[in-house]
Design goal:
Layout (H helix, E strand, L loop, with lengths): L1 H31 L1 E2 L2 E2 L16 H44 L2 E2 L7 H6 L14 E2 L5 E7 L1 H18 L4 E7 L1 H14 L4 E7 H8 L18 H4 L6 E5 L3 E3 L3 H5 L11 E5 L23 E9 H6 L2 H16 L6 H11 L4 E4 L5 E2 L18 E3 L13 H12 L19 H11 L8 H6 L6 E2 L16 E8 L5 H8 L4 E7 L1 H12 L2 H4 L4 E7 L7 H10 L5 E4 L4 E3 L3 H11 L7 E4 L2 E3 L11 H10 L3 E2 L14 H6 L4 E3 L9 E4 L15 H11 L3 E4 L5 E3 L6 H8 L1 H22 L4 H9 L1
Parallel strand pairs: 5-6, 5-8, 6-7, 10-12, 13-14, 16-17, 16-19, 17-18, 21-26, 22-27
Antiparallel strand pairs: 1-2, 3-4, 8-11, 9-14, 10-11, 15-18, 19-25, 20-27, 21-25, 22-23, 24-26
Membrane topology: Single-pass type II membrane protein
GO molecular function, one term: xylosyltransferase activity
Pathway: Protein modification; protein glycosylation
């Protein structure tokens, strides 16, 4: 409504201007064209230079009046043109507002007009406005491989989701690593009106592996060439994006450009904004053939149905084979081959305005694409330097990128009202479970947390590890939040084996962690540490969910269930592998206990042997873990016996027992109902006992808890009476569930609790 009112005001102002300005001007000219009551000619042909009444000053006045008349006439013509355009656009604009459809920016398929005025093409004020229907699905294809590219995809998707008003269907051509990461991410993200389909990139390698490619994207940088074969045959059009793209507008505007394709135009591309294809960057620089500056393939509009009819596969293959005979390899991956095809068939391309792909590479002409940074639509970080690229407005671009990088992805779970979403069984089950909870229950928030789906990004950093062939390998499993980040380097120095960590972070904290890890020589030298980000949501620390995430993504047959505050003894990794064989853990249900100790000193000379640890115990430098706060938690370990033990010994379960253990990877998960502080490990050990695990203490193993400030959750436990009441309620419900599940054998847990 506001837009309509503004349009009417502009229309009225333009009308008055056209009527008023000429009238005033001609009155002024008419009055000024008389001297002594006689008319004076304005034409130089009619002037009388020999007349006594004629002077040099009057000639200058007449000339200035003539110039002024021409200026007024030019202004009038411009105003009339603007008024006619406003009249033509007004009804369509109002219809667009009422129907809630989304318009595109004015583009051009004429490369000459674009080159003549790149900036002029940015304005959408006077252009035709093909529209995208409100609930029309927009299809986007992305090629993604590896750990780093998976992170980049998330930022790209965030920028698209932030602006979008239409259902989206992402077609991800991914390798096994990216598929595992992104499938879990989107499954736990649960964004309405977003569909994800995966296509195996490894199966496509044979289609392009015959093309030598020098570009850093490797073989995956060629896979956009085979999208006509890869994507569903009934898919008619798709927007193809590189992973290093950031959107600054609604992607529906770009989708609408398809309506402007004419004739045999099947590719929508932006002109390349560097001099690469001009061949003048250095001596003997010889790029692939291209039309003028060539085109950049970071953003492509593909009319798939027409491409298939044109036999695109045959077209690009023949071109690539011919050019490779002289070029030997591609330098810019698929972009070289696309340009070679366009050089031979220029009618295929519809040239997009360059603000649809502002390329921030070195020696770029991207600054000519916009008058102001607000004109931007799509930013393309297509330099290997990425955010470190040189550009006049790089700070603005970098801040825009960082905004989406650190933006809370949970806020993007927005419903598209009026657009029906596909039925999601997981989402329906979740809603059903939540609806069964009593919101008036004082422990409602505790119960609700059990069903909260936390967005999860697996393998946030590069991970590469092959378990030992002897099937004795052990992974250390732990969880942490931002305030325990300083423990990572120390743990890596103490434990040389594989580690699986679940980190509970916000989007912004995840980026802080990334910078911390990339700046650490210790962490960057370790490729056998799996970092799994579980994004923050809700008011409780989901400790057992985090443990389950870390447990689920190990590749070794055994795991050491630890906590991030503990440093294992030097050599514990190899000792545990030997113990696995010695105690036949593969064929027996055992939980091997690593005795836990603690120090109150922030600076500790870590004991290098059991003898040295016993000496420090006697001196009061070390203590058995929580002996002064929660003795029952580790008392069954029998530290007195451990002091002199030389062989493993068995201990029995007791109430509130919560040791740190080594178990097979198929052991039960932690119970998610326990969040924050209290009973999270106790319940797990109880379940291990119910499943008849034997608890065996290792005589020459130990771990030491390092001091730290109290966690927020333990503070809530100590200060909030309702917190303690709810924890007691959850504990009783867990014990009842144990009795129902394990029958008569589980009655001992109720008895033990009553006696403790």
């Amino acid at each position: 409504m506001l837009g309509i009112c503004r349009g009417r005001r502009k229309f009225l102002a333009a009308s008055l201007t056209i009527l008023f300005v000429p009238a005033v001007t001609w009155i002024y000219l008419f009055a000024g064209s008389f001297e002594d009551g006689k008319p004076v000619s304005l034409s130089p042909l009619e002037s009388q230079p020999h007349s006594p009444r004629y002077t040099a000053s009057s000639q200058r006045e007449r000339e200035s009046l003539e110039v002024r008349v021409r200026e007024v006439e030019e202004e009038n013509r411009a105003l009339r043109k603007q008024l006619s355009l406003a009249q033509a656009r007004g009804p369509a604009h109002r219809r667009a507002n009422h129907s809630k459809t989304y318009s595109m920016e004015e583009g051009t398929g004429d490369s000459e007009s674009l080159r003549a005025g790149i900036v002029a093409g940015n304005s959408s004020e006077c252009g035709q406005q093909p529209v995208v229907e409100k609930c029309e699905t927009i299809h986007v294809a992305i090629v993604c491989a590896g750990y780093n590219a998976s992170r980049d995809v998330v930022t790209l998707v965030k920028s698209v989701l932030f602006h979008r008003r239409n259902p989206l269907h992402f077609h991800l051509i991914a390798d096994a690593i990216a598929k595992q990461i992104l499938a879990t991410l989107f499954q736990t993200w649960m964004v309405p009106a977003v569909r994800i389909d995966f296509y195996d990139a490894d199966e496509l390698k044979s289609e392009v592996s015959w093309i030598p490619n020098k570009h850093y994207s490797g073989i995956y940088g060629l896979m956009k060439l085979v999208l006509t074969k890869t994507l569903p045959s009934n898919l008619e059009r798709v927007i193809v994006l590189d992973t290093d793209i950031t959107f600054a507008t609604d992607i529906a505007e770009l989708w609408a450009v398809f309506h402007k394709f004419k004739g045999q135009q099947v590719l929508g591309l932006v002109e390349n904004q560097s001099d690469w294809y001009l061949g003048n960057l250095w001596k003997n620089h010889r790029p692939w053939p291209a039309l003028g500056r060539g085109y950049n393939t970071g953003v492509i509009l593909l009319l798939l149905d027409k491409l298939r009819k044109m036999k695109w596969e045959q077209m690009w293959r023949l071109t690539a084979e011919r050019e490779l005979m002289s070029m030997l390899s591609t330098s810019l991956a698929d972009q070289d081959i696309f340009n070679a095809v366009i050089k031979q068939n220029p009618f295929l391309v519809y040239q997009l305005p360059c603000f649809w792909n502002v390329q921030l590479s070195d020696h770029t002409r991207s600054e000519q694409c916009y008058r102001d940074v607000s004109d931007l639509k799509v930013i393309h970080w297509n330099s290997p330097k990425k955010l470190r690229v040189k550009n006049k407005h790089v700070e603005f671009f970098r801040n825009l990128y960082l905004t989406f990088l650190e933006y809370d992805g949970n806020l993007l779970r927005r419903e598209l009202f009026g657009c029906p979403s596909e039925t999601d069984v997981n989402s329906e089950n979740l809603q059903k479970q939540l609806s069964e909870l009593d919101e008036d229950d004082l422990c409602y928030e505790f119960r609700r947390e059990r069903f909260t789906v936390h967005r999860t990004h697996l393998y946030f950093l590069h991970y590469e590890y092959e378990p030992a062939a002897d099937n004795t390998d052990v992974t250390l499993v732990a969880q942490l939040s931002m305030d325990r980040l300083q423990m990572l380097e120390a743990i890596c120095k103490h434990w040389e084996g594989p580690i699986s960590l679940a980190l509970y972070l916000s989007d912004a904290e995840a980026q802080q962690f990334l910078r911390y890890a990339q700046g650490s020589e210790v962490l960057m030298s370790r490729h056998n540490v799996g970092y799994h980000i579980v994004y923050k949501e809700g008011q409780f620390y989901p400790v057992n969910l985090l443990r389950n995430v870390a447990m689920k993504h190990i590749s070794t047959p055994y795991m050491f269930l630890s906590d991030i505050d503990f440093l294992p003894m030097y050599g514990l990794y190899e000792y545990l592998r030997k113990s696995v064989i010695q105690l036949d853990l593969a064929n027996t249900k055992k939980a091997l206990i690593v005795p836990a100790f603690e120090t109150l000193r922030y600076r500790l000379s870590f004991p290098k042997s059991k003898a040295e640890l016993l000496s420090m115990l006697d001196m009061g430098t070390l203590f058995t873990f929580r002996y002064h706060v929660w003795t029952k938690g580790h008392a069954p370990t029998n530290f007195a016996k451990w002091r002199t033990a030389t062989t493993p010994y068995r201990v029995e379960w007791e109430a509130d027992f919560e040791p740190y253990v080594v178990v097979r990877k198929d052991c039960p998960e932690y119970d998610r109902r326990f969040v924050g502080f209290g009973w999270n490990k106790v319940a797990h050990i109880m379940e291990l006992d119910a499943q008849e695990y034997e608890f065996t203490v290792l005589p020459n193993a130990y771990m030491i808890h390092m001091p730290h400030a109290p966690s927020f959750d333990i503070t809530k436990f100590r200060s909030n009476k309702q917190y303690r009441i709810c924890l007691k309620t959850l504990k009783e419900e867990f014990q009842q569930d144990m009795s129902r599940h394990y029958g008569f054998a589980a009655l001992k847990y109720l008895t033990a609790e009553n006696n403790s």
